[in-house]
Specification:
With 320 residues, this protein is α/β, with parallel strands linked by helices. The protein folds into 2 domains: 195 residues, FAD/NAD(P)-binding domain (3-Layer(bba) Sandwich); 112 residues, FAD/NAD(P)-binding domain (3-Layer(bba) Sandwich). It is 22% helix and 29% strand. It has 6 helices and 17 strands. Strands 1, 2, 3, 4, 5, 6 and 17 form a 7-stranded mixed beta sheet that branches. The protein has a 5-stranded parallel beta sheet with strand order 8-15-9-10-11, with helices on one face. Helix 2 links the parallel strand 2 and strand 3. Helix 1 packs parallel to helix 2 and helix 1 runs parallel beside helix 6. The mean pLDDT is 90.
C-alpha cells in the first residue's frame, strides 16, 4: 500500500458529490450496513435557485435546505462520513496485496491540510453533476434563479400565462420553445444573434404564436431580480415578466481522465440502467450521466437505484 493511503480509511464506497443523487445513494448504502465516505465540494449548480419544486413532500423548499436535511439524515448513521468543502483530485485503480478488493484509491483535497487525504474503497459512485455556462447576455446573472430559470418542468408552473422569454445560444431552442409554451402562450425566443433555427422551425413556432427574435440582446432590464424587459441591439424593448435560459452544461468528470471511462459526445458518463460505468466497481448517478430530466427527485431516484446495484454487486447477489 502506498504510504499516503491511510490504512484505517477503508470504505465500501466513496460517493463523490452531495446533491440529491449522491446523498440518496449514501443513505441507502449506509442502511445496507456499508461504510461510506461522501466527498462534498459544497458548490451546487443550483446555488442561485431560491426554491425547488417537484420533490414529493418537499415542494417549495429551498435547494440548500433540501441538501442540509439530506446531509443530516446521512450523518446520523455511524457507517457514513461526510467531508464538506472537499474535492477529488484523482482516482487510481491499483491492487493492495493485503486487501485486493480495495482497488480504488481516491485522493481528496480539502479546504485545510487536515482534510486532505487518500482513501481506499471497494467501489466509487460519481454524482458530481454539471457545471453550466450561461448565454453571453449582460446582466443575466442578476435575474438567474429569481425570475429566469433553466428547468421548465421545475419552475414553469409559477410563471403562469405571463409573457416569457426563452434565451439561448444553442441550436435546440425549437424543442425548448415548445416546452415553455406548455406553461405560457406568450413566449418570445431570443437567439442573441447566435443560435440557429431552420426556416421550417421558425415557421412552426410562428404558427403557434411564438415569436423569434434573432437580434443580439443589449441588456436585460428589471429590479431586484425581477425581469421586466429584454432590450435588443438597436433599442427595441420586449416586455416580459420572466423566463428561461438554455445553459451549456459540462459534466464534472475531469478527475476521472486517467480511467478512460466510456463517455458520450457531450462528456456524460455512459452507464447501464443501474448506474454501472464501463469500469467494474465504478458507478455514476444523476446529471453527470447521459441526459434526462434534470429534476432533484429524478436524481435522488437514480442515486437509490445505483446504491442497490452496488449492494448487490458487492454481495455477489443478482438483483431481482
Amino acid at each position: 500500500m502506498n504510504d499516503d493511503v491511510r490504512s484505517e480509511e477503508r470504505y465500501d464506497c466513496v460517493v463523490i458529490g452531495a446533491g440529491p443523487a449522491g446523498l440518496s445513494a449514501a443513505l441507502n448504502l449506509t442502511r445496507a450496513r456499508m461504510r461510506v465516505l461522501v466527498v462534498d465540494s459544497d458548490r451546487p449548480r443550483h446555488a442561485a435557485t431560491l426554491v425547488s419544486h417537484g420533490f414529493l413532500t418537499r415542494d417549495g423548499v429551498p435547494p440548500h435546505e433540501l441538501r442540509r436535511l439530506a446531509r443530516e439524515e446521512v450523518e446520523r448513521y455511524p457507517e457514513a462520513e461526510v467531508l464538506q468543502r472537499c474535492s477529488v483530485a484523482s482516482i487510481d485503480v491499483e491492487a493492495d496485496a493485503d486487501a485486493p478488493a480495495l482497488r480504488f484509491v481516491t485522493r481528496i483535497t480539502g479546504r485545510t491540510p487536515s482534510l486532505s487525504r487518500s482513501v481506499r474503497s471497494r467501489t466509487v459512485l460519481v454524482a458530481t453533476g454539471l457545471r453550466e455556462t450561461l448565454p453571453d447576455v449582460p446582466g443575466l446573472r442578476g435575474f438567474y434563479g429569481m425570475s429566469l430559470f433553466s428547468c421548465v418542468a421545475c419552475d414553469g408552473y409559477e410563471m403562469g400565462s405571463r409573457p416569457l422569454a426563452l434565451i439561448g445560444e444553442t441550436d435546440d431552442l425549437f424543442r425548448r420553445a415548445l416546452l415553455v409554451a406548455q406553461w405560457s402562450p406568450q413566449v418570445t425566443v431570443f437567439t442573441n444573434g447566435v443560435a440557429r433555427l431552420t426556416p421550417n422551425e421558425e415557421t412552426d413556432l410562428g404558427d403557434r404564436g411564438i415569436r423569434v427574435e434573432r437580434r443580439a440582446i443589449d441588456e436585460l432590464e428589471g429590479d431586484r431580480g425581477q425581469l421586466t424587459a429584454v432590450r435588443l441591439r438597436g433599442g427595441e424593448r420586449v416586455a416580459v415578466t420572466g423566463g428561461f435560459v438554455r445553459p451549456v452544461w459540462h459534466p464534472i468528470v475531469d478527475f476521472l481522465a486517467s480511467l478512460n471511462l466510456d463517455i458520450d459526445g457531450s462528456g456524460h458518463l455512459i452507464t447501464d440502467r443501474d448506474g454501472r460505468t464501463s469500469l467494474p466497481g465504478m458507478y455514476a448517478a444523476g446529471d453527470v450521466t447521459a441526459p434526462g430530466p434534470q429534476q432533484l427527485i429524478v436524481a435522488a431516484g437514480a442515486g437509490a437505484r445505483s446504491a442497490a446495484s452496488i449492494t448487490h454487486d458487492l454481495l455477489g447477489v443478482a438483483a431481482g
